[in-house]
Structure formats: C-alpha cells, structure tokens
Design brief:
The protein has about 60 residues and is mostly helical. About 75% of the residues lie in helices and about 0% in strands. The longest helix has 19 residues.
Length: about 60
Amino acid sequence: MSYQTILDAVRRHRCEESLADDCVSGKCLAWDLGYAEVNSFYRAFRRWTGKNYSDVKLLLI
C-alpha cells in the first residue's frame, strides 16, 4: 500500500464525515482535506463517488 493510497482513503473518510455532519462548501472542504486547489478535490470526489460534488451538495440541501 502506497502513501498516496492511504492519504486518499483518509481524505475520503474525512470528506464523508464532513458531509454527514453538515453541508460544507467545496472550497472549505478542499482546504480542510489538504488540497492546494479546489479542482483537485472535485476530481478526487468524482473518482471516489462517481458523482459531482455540486450534485451531491444539492441532494443534501
């Protein structure tokens, strides 16, 4: 298991926890998870879930 695989798993877990507690803006969540750019977070989120962050956020509102 590589460092990147572990980091990705931790980020995904923290993202799921954050979304379960409250609807957070993509920019804030990306920053909290350690992404330098919001677009990198959006790509990772789509890779994890198969959905766009904005679509998931609309479902949670």
